[in-house]
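We store amino acids, tokens; thus:
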Amino acid sequence: MTSPAEVLENHTLAVRDGRILDVLPTALAADRYAATIEVDRSEHLVLPGLVNAHAQIAPLPGHTAHPERLHDGALLRIAEMLKSGTTCFCSLGYFPEESARTAAEQGLRALIGIPIAETASAWAKSPGDYLTRALNFRDEYRGHPTIATAFAPDMPVAISDGTFGRIATLADELDSGVLMVLHESRAAVKESVIRYGKRPIERMHSLGLLTPALTAAHMVHVTAADIVLAQRSGIAVTLCPEANFRAGEGPPPVASWASSGLRLSLGSGAAGLGNDVATGLDLWAALRLLILLSHAPGASNARDPASVALQAWDALAVVTRVGAAALGLDAEIGTLEKGKWADLCCVDLRSPAMQCASLLQPHDLAAQLAWGGGRDIVSDVWVSGRHLLNDGAFTRLDWATVAARANDWREPPVTGE
């Protein structure tokens, strides 16, 4: 994922201790390395695992009142991600312990947002309690091979300048990332102006939080001045178009963000909206929506000649290389380079969707993936070299048991008798 023209045929990827040891022609690999395990995936394509940069895996929509279901709900969401080739996700919400525990248990890579707020929740009761728990949680997972953490202030409009000042100081002292939902709705922008006299991004700038350490999710209702301020600050941006549509807020300005030069990533958004409707975790569908929105009439800003539509290769980079960079993980994942973790997604080029796509775009593999990609083409997934999905079957997750327990949750139908 470093060059549009770089597709290596008849190559072998060697892995040692979970990291990529070498990428070389298959004819040389047998002579150079004595493998303890060999996986033959002829007529397949290996690419970096997909990165879902904004998701919520616990609790499932409609099940917040059932703490006993948190773990199984998280397992369901992780199963959904693995089946679609996602190897890394960024989780927000008030159940960071469950999200981290389940991800680590199943071997998936995760950046866990540690919630900070000023109202009581299942996680903490006061601003001081939130910050104390955040630091303890961060210490618990420091140095973990697959779990990273970042501060995640919830509902910025409801957090005082004083609390944000403490977050900014801690993030700077600890070299920590900050995850925040900004400009996700007209109401949120309006409320910020009423309370603080500033738009959300302007307020974050005045508080010292608009830095390259910030990853701002949604960024739907923005002006040209907002985008310029984001560019000057070097923040990362995560777009969640499906969640925006389902919340009734319309799409983000995809073409403008794609042309901004910022680290751009893609996410599912929250697992549930106000009506308890779950957004899907299939990044392939979200990827196509992202491309289409950038090509929609009026998507490219006539007043900004640099505003252009996304092409297939660029969109694939958003969910791999650049997506990893948006989460501060690009030194470890996102490309198939020596020394990086072997977080891999393998797709079957013989699948019906890819066969059809190859007829329509015979010389453009990136376009074939972008338009033909989906759960049905993903055969294998590795995270840190661990084979978590093998020829479509889970190797660690006990799907039969999880599905059976989930089936028991369902309420019996109302018969009217």
In short: The first strand starts at residue 11 and ends at 16. The CA atoms of residues 18 and 384 lie 4 Å apart.
